[in-house]
Specification:
By secondary structure, this protein is α/β, with parallel strands linked by helices. The protein is built from eleven helices and 13 strands. It has one domain: Rossmann fold.
C-alpha cells in the first residue's frame, strides 16, 4: 500500500483526492483545522510555519507527497502579495527539499495561468511563461523553487472543476449556484481554457506517481473551450436556462487581477508518458452532475469543522 501525504486537504483538489476510492493508496490529509470526522486520516499543521513545513515529511514518513496547498484566490493574492509569495512560492521549495532529502517522491500542483495568453496557438511545456497576476507570478516561483530544490520532483500545471467544501471554489459551482437560483451571470467569450474534472485530475496525478514521472507537465483537459461555452454546457447538463448566461468579454468584467485570454495547453507529453488518453470535459460535466444527484456536495460539507 502506497502512503501519500496530501497538503491542502480541505481545498477543492485536496479534498476530492482524499475522498476518492483508491485501491492501492492510503491518503493522509494535511489540514489547518477546517475538517472534522473525515473518512481519511487527518494531520493538523500550519504550513506558514517554515519549521513545521520542513519537519512534516520526516515526521510522517510518506511514500509520496502531493502538494496542493496554495492561496488560489487570484484577487486575494493581489491584495497580499507577500503572503502569496511565501505560501505559493517559498513553501513548495521547502517541502520539495525535505522530500528530496528523505527520497520521497514529490508532486507539486501549479497552474495554467503562468502564461500570458498572447500566443496564437497551444502552449507546450517548452514555452516560456509570462505570468500576469500576483497569483500566477508566485505559482511560477513555486515551480522554479521545487525543481531547483528537487530535480526528481514533478510539477503539474492544472485547470480543474468540481465540488468543493464551501461550494464556491470552482467555475462549475459558480454557474451551478447562479443558474439553479435563476440568476443571471457572465460567461467570458474571449477566455479559452482546458478544464478537467477534479476526479479525473486526481486519478491522473496518482498515475503520474505510479510512473514516477519527474519534471514539468501540463495536466489539463483534452478540449479547449471558452468560459461562456463551459457555462452553456453546465446549463444543458442540469436543465437550466442558458439564457441567464450573458456572453461578454473579460475586459468588461470587474475582476481585479488581469486574466489571460488563451490558456490552451498541450497534453501530448502527458498522454505519451502515461500511455493514456485524458477524459473530455463533457464526461467530466456528466460526473459533476451525477455527484450532485447522489448528494456528494452535501456529504462533502458534512466534514466541515463546526
Amino acid at each position: 500500500m502506497t502512503h501519500i501525504l496530501v497538503t491542502g486537504s480541505s481545498g477543492l483538489l485536496g479534498l476530492n483526492l482524499c475522498l476518492g476510492n483508491w485501491d492501492s493508496y492510503t491518503l493522509l490529509g494535511l489540514d489547518r483545522g477546517k475538517l472534522a470526522n473525515t473518512p481519511f486520516k487527518l494531520v493538523q499543521a500550519d504550513l506558514n510555519d517554515p519549521q513545521t513545513a520542513s519537519r512534516l515529511i520526516d515526521t510522517l514518513n510518506p511514500d509520496a507527497v502531493i502538494h496542493t496547498a496554495a492561496n488560489a484566490s487570484i484577487d486575494s493574492c493581489e491584495s497580499d502579495p507577500d503572503n502569496a509569495r511565501y505560501l505559493n512560492g517559498e513553501i513548495p521549495g521547502i517541502l520539495a527539499e525535505a522530500a528530496a532529502k528523505a527520497s520521497v517522491h514529490f508532486l507539486h500542483i501549479s497552474t495554467d495561468a503562468v502564461f500570458d495568453g498572447t500566443k496564437d496557438g497551444i502552449y507546450t511545456e517548452t514555452d516560456v511563461p509570462n505570468p500576469l497576476s500576483v497569483y500566477a507570478q508566485t505559482k511560477l516561483l513555486g515551480e522554479q523553487n521545487v525543481l531547483s530544490a528537487n530535480p526528481a520532483a514533478a510539477v503539474a500545471r492544472v485547470n480543474f472543476f468540481g465540488w468543493s467544501l464551501s461550494g464556491t471554489r470552482s467555475l462549475s459551482e459558480f454557474f451551478y449556484n447562479k443558474l439553479s437560483a435563476g440568476q443571471t451571470c457572465n460567461g467570458f467569450t474571449d477566455v479559452y481554457f482546458c478544464p478537467m474534472f477534479v476526479g479525473d485530475l486526481a486519478a491522473t496525478l496518482l498515475r503520474m506517481l505510479d510512473k514516477s514521472l519527474s519534471g514539468l507537465y501540463h495536466v489539463v483537459g483534452s478540449e479547449a473551450l471558452n468560459k461562456y461555452e463551459f457555462g452553456i454546457r453546465i446549463a444543458h447538463q442540469f436543465g437550466f436556462d442558458e439564457g441567464l448566461i450573458r456572453p461578454i468579454s473579460v475586459e468588461q468584467s470587474t475582476l481585479i487581477a488581469q486574466r489571460s485570454h488563451n490558456l490552451r495547453l498541450s497534453i501530448h507529453k502527458l498522454c505519451t508518458d502515461l500511455g493514456m488518453e485524458i477524459p473530455s470535459v463533457s464526461t467530466g460535466i456528466e460526473q459533476f452532475y451525477t455527484q450532485a444527484q447522489q448528494g456528494y456536495p452535501q456529504k462533502m460539507r458534512s466534514y466541515q469543522q463546526a
